[in-house]
């Protein structure tokens, strides 16, 4: 049971090729995902990338699982990591190719050497119906939400997965840890949500702190970068070319027509190895 570990700015994933796990068809169970991802009892990661899978919509199919066993529709960092894995396995080259996720089909281009990758993430939508957010059909911009002892003004967006973006004068990891879990599970978001606390640095730079749905506090996120940059542009606070600063590093976002997103960032190969069957005698 071979695994391949990579990180994208500290956001780490294990790539599990279904061909190496025939007994897990069609996908790992919630219990298997939880123990494999566990930082103490397993191999440790922010999620599992299950692929390549057969698909009729693109060249490769991919499913993305969070450490709690839930499934993510899309992950920008996960897509870059999976693309790097395909490149390392010589399944793709520097020519553009496509990946099918539950959150939509994306296009990927890998620079020579494989360490820098660009992903066409699709179009960001602010529609409550698509995200989803409860209430009437509308663009969810500058609405109020209360959690614990504080009321925030937020915008919601989807780039194939849901996001709650909260602009503030300053952001911190402590803020994300305190309020992120309650925003993630707030009744406003029937499928839960990823949470970003957004600080505008200037017209070309933003900073975010991230609480990721199903994973918790995260050093970096590609889809969070995409959603936050799109919200900042929607509010008229940044231009189309934005650098997103996160605790783990920086991602470049280019905002095109109709809020199409091109995300560019690095991937680092960490390790490969074998999961021992004994691992699964542990319950987490």
CATH architecture of the largest domain: Roll
By CATH, the superfamily of the largest domain comes out as Diaminopimelate Epimerase, Chain A, domain 1
Largest pleated sheet: 18 strands, mixed
**SS-based class:** alpha+beta
How many domains, as an integer? 2
Gyration radius, rounded? 18 Å
What coarse outline follows from CA principal-axis ratios? globular
Order of helices and strands, N to C? EEHEEEHEEEEEEHEEEHEEEE
Tally the helices: what do you get? 4
Helix content: 10-25%
How many β strands by DSSP? 18
CATH topology of the largest domain: Diaminopimelate Epimerase, Chain A, domain 1
Report low-confidence residues grouped into runs of 5 or more.
Answer: none
Span between termini: 20 Å
CATH class bucket of the largest domain: Alpha Beta
- Quaternary status of these chains? single chain
Percent strand: 35-45%
Mean pLDDT: 97
What does this entry look like structurally?
- This protein is α+β, with helices and mostly antiparallel strands.
- It contains four helices and 18 strands.
- The two termini are 20 Å apart.
- The model has no long low-confidence stretch (mean pLDDT 97).
